[in-house]
Structure formats: structure tokens, C-alpha cells
């Protein structure tokens, strides 16, 4: 009962936080019929700045960290991405009315990672003075890329069974290239490289850190606007996608928490790091995933995987999963 009260209190606090408040505000303003729009170029620029900051901060920490400390969490990140795609694909394969390509694309998007959800969780932990290793955001590509690759390969295997044969090895190389060249991973990898091999501390403290939370609030507002607009698309597809989008983030986050707890026992992974691994697992890609899946699984209906992810998956990950796993860590670790 005490834990439930703690979660309820944290959930209400999260609703009042700038992160979720701007998300809800964006949805409400579209619901009211506003014609306000944010140019896509501004959206991409905000993503670039946020991920550059996350990458540089992680790279600076990696520079002085023991590689051995990262090894087990990185391996578990790969495992979580693969498990999520396999579970999602298995679920949708049981539904006769759901096309194979739609199911694999949705599973791939939920196996990939949302940088905005990651950023929101980091801000919350920093506000509450919960320690986490600064290299934890560097786990992003370890989960993101394997999930996208596996989803596309599974989709292609299903297509081959239907009689159309393609080169799986070629597709794997293509999706790796597309993922790395995408705006999200490109910015994150660049920030990591600068943090590891350069000395960007002055520009990080003087420019990126002061604007980080302000830019995050704008990003949440944009995602709220898009989430509401995608609800109409989601109405056009089977209700199973909505059910999956409601339950999957929580289940995936619990898988991440369980493996993070193992890493805590075996390698000293911090409780804050366990929370972030859980949130990464609970998130679903809103930047790198959609364009990669559109190119890799062109037969899939974007209304299924993007609609389910943006309309339901992201709000659940941010509004429910972040306070849920912070509260769970408080119960398990006493943080």
C-alpha cells in the first residue's frame, strides 16, 4: 500500500512536471482546433542539440570509466532489444487479421529507443538528485540498432516464405547504414565521439546544459501535438495495436529492470542506471525508428506502428513508466 501511494504521488508529480505538462499541452491545443505548427526543421534541430548534449556528457564519462563497467549493461541492452522484437512479433503472429509486416514493424519500433523519453527520465533523475552513470545514454544504440535489424530481417523472412526472395545480408548492411546515418544516431554518435576524443566541457557547460531543459519542453510540446493527430490514424487499424501499445511499454520496462538488477548485483550498476535502462526498454522510437522501418519494411502500414507508438506508447512510457520505475527502484534499492 505504501508503495502504491508513493507511485500515485510520483505519478501526480510527473503530471505536473514541465516534461509531461508540455506533452499534454501540445495534445490539448490540437484538440482545440489550433492551427499552430512547428516547422520540421526546428524539430530536427532540437533533436540534434538534445542528443549532442546527451552524447557529449556520456562521452566525457566514458573517457574516464572502466570499459568493464559498461560491458554487462551493453550486452543486456542488446538482449532487451532482441527480446522485445521477438515477443512483439510472436504476439502479432497469433492474430489472424494482422499482417506480418505490420506486426514486425510495430515490434521493431517498440524495441527501438526514444531519445525524448530517455531525456525526460534523465531530467527527472537529475532533479531528484538520483545518481546514474553518465555513460548510460550510450546504451541507446546497443538496443536501438539490433531491434531495428531484427524486425526488418524477420519481415523479410516472412516475405520470402510468401514467395518473394531477397538478400537478407544486404538488408542487414543497409539498415545498419540507415540507422547510423539517421539524424538521431548521427547526433548521438557525434556527441559521444566529441566527449571521448575532444575536451568539450566548456561548450557543454556554457551552451548545451543551460538550454537543455527548455528545448526538451518544446520537444514534448511537439510530440503532444503529433500524438493527438495520430489518434485518428490509430482508429483505422485493429484494436490489438492499441492494446499492445498500452501494455508493451510496462512489460518491456520490467524486462529492462530485471536485467538491470542483475547488472547491479554482478557489476555494480547504479540504481539510477537501472531506472534508465528500464525507461530505455519501455520507450519506443520516435526519431530514428520510423524512417528506418519505412525504408526497410515498405509494405507495412505506417498508421499501425507510428500511430500506436506516438499516440499511446510514448505517453505511457513518459507518463506512467518513468514514475513507475523510479518508485520501483525506491522500493528495491531504497533510493
Task: Describe the structure in your own words.
- The chain crosses the membrane at residues 12-30, 42-60, 72-95, 107-125, 137-159, 180-198, 210-228, 240-259, 304-326.
- It holds the Pfam family Sbt_1.
- The chain is mainly alpha-helical.
- The protein has a single domain, classed as Na+/H+ antiporter like fold (Up-down Bundle), CATH 1.20.1530.20.
- It contains 14 helices and no strands.
- The protein has helices at residues 2-16, 18-31, 40-64, 67-93, 100-111, 115-127, 140-161, 168-181, 183-197, 201-234, 239-267, 271-282, 289-296, 302-333.
- Helix 10 (201-234) packs across helix 14.
- The mean pLDDT is 83.
What is the rounded distance between the termini? 18 Å
Number of helices: 14
Query: Total number of β-strand segments?
Result: 0
What is the level-2 CATH architecture name? Up-down Bundle
CATH topology: Na+/H+ antiporter like fold
Radius of gyration: 19 Å
- How much of the sequence is in beta strands? under 5%
For the record, the count of structural domains works out to 1
In helices, the fraction of residues equals over 70%
- Please describe the biggest sheet, giving its number of strands, its sense, and whether it closes into a barrel: none
Reading the helices and strands in chain order gives HHHHHHHHHHHHHH
Q: What is the residue-averaged pLDDT?
A: 83
Q: For the record, what CATH class applies?
A: Mainly Alpha
Report low-confidence residues grouped into runs of 5 or more. none
The class by helix and strand makeup works out as mainly alpha
Transmembrane segments: 12-30, 42-60, 72-95, 107-125, 137-159, 180-198, 210-228, 240-259, 304-326
Protein name: Putative sodium-dependent bicarbonate transporter
Organism: Salinispira pacifica
Keywords: Membrane, Transmembrane, Transmembrane helix
